[in-house]
């Protein structure tokens, strides 16, 4: 498909470095986008300005990932724990998907991107659900990059829900307890039809998972940077991918 509408911003995005290995690009990259608040504070701006700027980084990195041929990009946009933030900030964060999609949906469609949402709909405002559902349905047939927003997502709840479903199936005689294995568990998670991330990126210098994809990240490579999410660029992204390419993944073997 002809990459049309992204052309303008694409031109300002650094090309992939010649040193990057062809054929060894991660299939699935997951990102914990952290540091919006500190980025804003450093500049004397309100936290919301950091989130707004972070939204622009989402677009930049989506284009960069698409250009590299990455198949799945999962972005942690709001965790089940983020409800603890002040209401004004939560309300602002809940408007971001809608704002982002109002501006970008046509370009996402034109560029064959498939939008998905991973998380619980409980407590999400209807405008957030509506914007995401529209994007998901309008891009469902697209075959390019899968842009998966983790929104109102928490890994422990995801796993507990999976375990409850498995337990019910055992109780109802649909499943033998002896047959519960990793594939059964994986098939009950929100990621049942996408591969586990090959690479996890977290920005802002924090070194933790914050309840993000705990099952799926079991064998992923981790890459951390002190850079705050709003100042994270495709150059940092390329650096993460190249570091990934230099690592030997042994999955517990030799
Ligand atoms: C963590 O930074 C960031 C978030 C909780 C929100 C992330 C959301 C975006 C980057 C925008 C999402 C865009 C779309 C299109 C859904 P923080 O606020 O915890 O930063 P801090 O640790 O410096 O305070």
From TrEMBL:
Q: Which SUPFAM superfamilies match?
A: Undecaprenyl diphosphate synthase
Cellular component aspect of the GO annotation: cytosol
Q: Where is the active site?
A: 34, 82 (proton acceptor)
Q: Does the keyword Transferase apply?
A: yes
Q: Per UniProt, which keywords does this protein have?
A: Magnesium, Metal-binding, Transferase
Q: Which cofactor does it need?
A: Mg(2+)
Regions crossing the membrane: none
The cofactor note from the UniProt entry for this protein is: Binds 2 magnesium ions per subunit.
Q: Give the molecular function GO annotations.
A: ditrans,polycis-undecaprenyl-diphosphate synthase [(2E,6E)-farnesyl-diphosphate specific] activity; magnesium ion binding; manganese ion binding
GO biological process: any one?
polyprenol biosynthetic process
Q: Where does substrate bind?
A: 35-39, 47, 51, 79-81, 83, 85, 202, 208-210
EC number(s) reported in the record: 2.5.1.-
Coiled-coil zones = none
State the family named in the UniProt similarity comment for this chain: Belongs to the UPP synthase family.
Q: How does it assemble?
A: Homodimer.
Name the NCBIfam families on file: PRK14830.1 (NF011405), uppS (TIGR00055)
Its name, as the record gives it, is: Isoprenyl transferase
Q: Which organism is it from?
A: Paenibacillus paeoniae
């Amino acid at each position: 498909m002809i990459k049309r509408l992204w052309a303008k911003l694409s031109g300002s995005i650094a090309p992939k470095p010649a040193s990057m290995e062809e054929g060894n690009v991660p299939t699935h990259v997951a990102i914990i986008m952290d540091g919006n608040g500190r980025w804003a504070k450093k500049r004397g701006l309100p936290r919301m300005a950091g989130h707004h700027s972070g939204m622009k980084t989402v677009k930049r990195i989506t284009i960069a990932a698409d250009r590299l041929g990455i198949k799945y990009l999962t972005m942690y946009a709001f965790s089940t724990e983020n409800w603890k933030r002040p209401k004004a900030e939560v309300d602002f964060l809940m408007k971001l998907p809608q704002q982002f999609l109002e501006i970008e949906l046509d370009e996402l469609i034109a560029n064959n991107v498939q939008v998905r949402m991973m998380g619980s709909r409980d407590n999400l405002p209807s405008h957030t659900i509506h914007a995401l559902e529209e994007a998901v349905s309008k891009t469902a047939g697209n075959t390019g990059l899968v842009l998966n927003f983790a929104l109102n997502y928490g890994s422990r709840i995801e796993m507990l829900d999976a375990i409850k479903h498995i337990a019910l199936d055992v109780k109802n005689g649909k499943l033998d307890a002896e047959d519960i294995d990793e594939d059964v568990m994986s098939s009950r998670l929100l990621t049942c039809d996408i591969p586990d991330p090959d690479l996890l990126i977290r920005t802002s210098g924090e070194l933790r998972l914050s309840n993000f994809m705990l099952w799926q990240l079991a064998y992923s490579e981790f890459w951390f940077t002190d850079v705050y999410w709003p100042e994270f660029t495709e150059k940092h992204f390329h650096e993460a991918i190249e570091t990934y390419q230099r690592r030997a993944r042994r999955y517990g073997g030799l």
